[in-house]
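Handout for the seminar on molecular recognition.
Each group receives one record of this type.
Step one: identify the two inputs.
Step two: read the structure output and locate the region that could contact coenzyme A.
Step three: write two sentences on what you found, then compare them with the reference statements printed after the record.
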Amino acid sequence: MPWRPMTVADLAPAFTLACAIHVDFFEALEVMTDKLAVYPAGCLTLEMPDGELSGYAVSHPYARGRVPKLNHLLGGLPADADIYYIHDIAIDAAARGRGHAETAVDLLAAHAGDAGFREVRLLSVNNSEAFWRRRGFSAVEDEHVDVTSYGLDAIYMRRIL
Ligand SMILES: CC(C)(COP(=O)(O)OP(=O)(O)OC[C@H]1O[C@@H](n2cnc3c(N)ncnc32)[C@H](O)[C@@H]1OP(=O)(O)O)[C@@H](O)C(=O)NCCC(=O)NCCS
């Protein structure tokens, strides 16, 4: 399986990929560095057989009803962490459609369950809602979450484990 734990050496190429993919959602290198330091178990790298970094996943425990602000340091996990939060899964365009993101969702959901969480949440952006729906996520309708830093079409979603 080409997914493996992210290392500090992956940060620079992962940041380059993030800048190319998330043109509307810039986050400084320090933000991914911070998330890797705070919760390394939630950060994965998609490495192809030729050694190319073709994707990454960043996730961590968080609190329901809140989302980490775009381009802000996490600085630590909330004391009241009660859900598992997928901050980002991004795959290089050339490597999409091969099930890599689906595998990452499975790995992170399994990790969340093993860590004792019963719910995975995320903000869907870039018209990725259908992708998440097909993986068991649905919109959280009954909570008002400040998603404004991610644009007006961001959707707060959850999957019960
Ligand atoms: C959303 C994103 C991560 C999906 O990545 P991906 O690797 O293409 O995803 P997958 O291959 O796992 O799934 C995509 C589709 O390919 C299909 N697929 C799976 N294995 C496949 C294979 N071997 N061959 C062809 N297609 C396959 C999946 O069934 C899936 O179809 P579905 O969505 O209709 O169910 C990717 O488009 C991306 O990086 N987008 C930009 C970043 C982004 O917006 N991330 C989400 C932030 S919330």
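Reference statements: The pocket of coenzyme A is lined by residues 21, 88-91, 96-102, 122, 124-126, 128, 131, 134 (CB under 6 Å). Helices lie at 11-21, 29-38, 100-114, 129-133.
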